[in-house]
Every structure is written in C-alpha cells, then in structure tokens.
Design goal:
This protein is α+β, with helices and mostly antiparallel strands. α2 crosses α3, α4 crosses α8 and α6 packs antiparallel against α8. Bound molecules: biotin. Biotin binds next to α5, β6, β9 and β10.
Length: 329
C-alpha cells in the first residue's frame, strides 16, 4: 500500500542532515524510539539507494536529503483550494489519480519514488527516490475534449515560467508537444490523460516529471541525453522551493486556460519554442515526416513546412531534432 513518509523518517533524516556521525542510540534517545526503529528506517532508506555511511554503530549522510515537505509547501502557498498527497513510493502518480474515485480539482499528488513511472508513448520514466519531482494533479475543465489540445503546451509554459523565476540561469525551452529542455537536453516532461465527462466537461490528469537533483548518476533505461537543475546550477536544490514556485504558476495559469484557452499563451510559446525553424522529423505513429518547424497554430498544433514548401498542421506526434549533432527524441 502506498503511504506518506512516516514522521519518524522525517525526524531521523532531519538529524542526519547535518552530515555528522550520529549513533543509533543517540538518535533513538533523542526521538524516544527504539534503536531497532532507527535501524529499520536507515535500512529502508538504503533500499532506495540513499547513501548512508555506517561507522562505529552510527550513521551519517555525505550530503543532506531534503524530503518533500507538505506543511512547508502548504504554508507557502496558502491556497485552500489545493489538496496535497505526498507518497513515499507509488507505482505512478498519474495512475494513482486515474484510479482514484471522486477527484477534486487541484488534487495534487507527489511521490518521492515511483516504481512504474511512465512517460509518453509507453516509455518508462526513471524515478529514483528523493531526487526529482514526480507530480500529478487533476482538473475538470468546462470544455469539450476537442478543446484540450493546447493543455500540455500551456503546462510547459507554466513550468518554464516557474523555472525562470527560480533562477534566470535556467533558460528552459519547450519541445512540442511536451518536453522541457534546459541547455539543449531533456530536463522534464509532461503527460496528459484526458477523461471525457458528462455535460461536455473534461477531466485532465496532468503530470509533470522534472529532473532536479540528478547529477553524476548512471541511470539505465534512459535512452536520450538528460539534464537536471542541479547539473545546470551546480548545487543541490531544495525541491520544496521548486514545487512551491511551480504550483503558484500552475494555479494562476489553470484559471486562464479554463476561461480563455490557449490563446493568451500563444505569443509566449514563441519565446520557449525549441523547434522554431529547426529541421525536425515528426513521428505520427503511422509515418515519419521531415520538415522545418514553423511554430504552432492558434489551436496549439505543430506547423511543419514540408520539402514542397507547403505548411501542414499536426495535432499529435513525437518530434525529433538534432542538437549539437546529438539526436534528441
Ligand atoms: C514524458 O516526457 O514522456 C512525460 C513524462 C511524465 C513523467 C511524470 S512523473 C509523474 C507522473 N507519473 C508518471 O508515471 N509519469 C508522470
């Protein structure tokens, strides 16, 4: 069963976050728990590949482990509309929300680890514990499913805005339809699951995966160049700060999309468009089409200039371009 991180784990991590040696006995006495309970938490963290040194019956971290902290995020957002759930480990935040009965708007779900994280087109999304942001939330729009094509672009813009406001060195770009690029490498992705509702409404399960503190790690299962905020900024990032900024941006942007659709975001897309005027190929699932990317249509469809000079619109597909000689699927 998926559960939130127990408060004992938070407290033990808090003690170890000074990166000094603490004996099991000391931690146990400080927290009023048994040494076995401390040992169990340490073993559990080790199972998630968290590096904990053991020495002289004590433990220490080489670098602090900043867990996602629900109270801190709630206090900084001060928005009664949102519900936050933060799991220690879950197969996938989006699959969890999809199965959940009676979804409320702005029901946000985060996980420290995903055992079956999924990306677009059946790819897996590697989700190591405590490093990145794995987030899904639900929103019911007063819109028909056919009007939702621009949603993943709008979410991309809202995440990009948040990253820029965190640190202007991060110059995020967006690869149509749903990739977040930083310094020419993939730093995150967006996944949208749509559920058609009665009365022309539509519920979206909106998911964001953002690489935050992944650096110098070898990860099997990622088939393309990737980056992370830590990699670009050369320092460990407190994910709580990133999450707060991202949620503020999303809360503001969802209201706009609900009432005005993609239109108010169209000019901003140009600023973030990674593909603009690039030679790309588009895999539609049935064919691969090459051409020059020419921005997006008012509905958020990709505009592709074909070798004949004709510009065609595409509402879905997977884009590939070459950056610095590297293929970026
Ligand atoms: C992609 O670029 O292919 C989209 C990646 C989306 C990953 C996120 S992480 C949170 C949520 N849970 C999942 O299993 N996937 C999405």
């Amino acid at each position: 069963m998926a559960h939130e991180i127990p408060s004992t784990t938070f407290k033990i991590v808090d003690i170890l976050n000074d990166c000094k040696l603490h004996t099991g006995t000391n931690i146990a006495e400080t927290l009023g728990i048994s040494r076995t309970a401390v040992w169990k938490v340490v073993q559990r963290l080790k199972q998630y590949n968290i590096h904990i040194e053991s020495q002289h019956q004590g433990y220490y971290f080489n670098s602090p482990l900043l867990l996602i902290d629900k109270k801190r995020i709630k206090n900084s957002l001060k928005d009664p509309r949102i519900t936050l759930e933060i799991f220690e480990s879950i197969p996938s935040t989006c699959d969890y929300l999809k199965k959940k009965a009676s979804l409320k708007n702005l029901n946000f779900c985060f996980a420290e680890h995903q055992s079956k994280g999924r990306g677009r087109l059946g790819r897996s999304w590697i989700s190591p514990f405590g490093k990145n942001i794995y987030c899904s939330f639900s929103y019911t729009f007063n819109k028909d499913i056919s009007e939702m094509s621009g949603l993943s672009l709008v979410i991309g813009i809202l995440v990009a805005r948040a990253l820029e406001s965190l640190n202007p060195i991060l110059k995020p770009l967006l690869k149509w339809p749903n990739d977040i690029y930083i310094d020419d490498q993939k730093g995150g992705g967006i996944l949208i699951d749509l559920i058609a509702e009665a009365h022309g409404n539509c519920t979206a399960i909106i998911s964001i995966g953002l690489n935050v503190n992944m650096k110098d790690v070898k990860l099997e299962g990622i088939d393309q160049p990737w980056t992370s905020l830590e990699h670009i900024l050369n320092e460990k990032i407190d994910r709580n700060v990133v999450i707060t900024q991202m949620l503020k941006s999303i809360l503001k942007g969802m209201e706009v999309f609900q009432w005005e659709g993609i239109e108010p975001f169209l000019s901003e897309w140009k600023q973030y468009d990674l593909l603009k005027d690039e030679k790309i190929s588009l895999n539609t699932g049935t064919e691969v089409i090459s051409g020059i990317a020419k921005g997006i249509s008012p509905q958020g469809h990709l505009l592709l200039e074909l070798p004949s000079g004709k510009i065609e619109k595409f509402s879905y597909g997977d884009t590939t371009l070459f950056l610095k000689g590297i293929r970026c699927p």
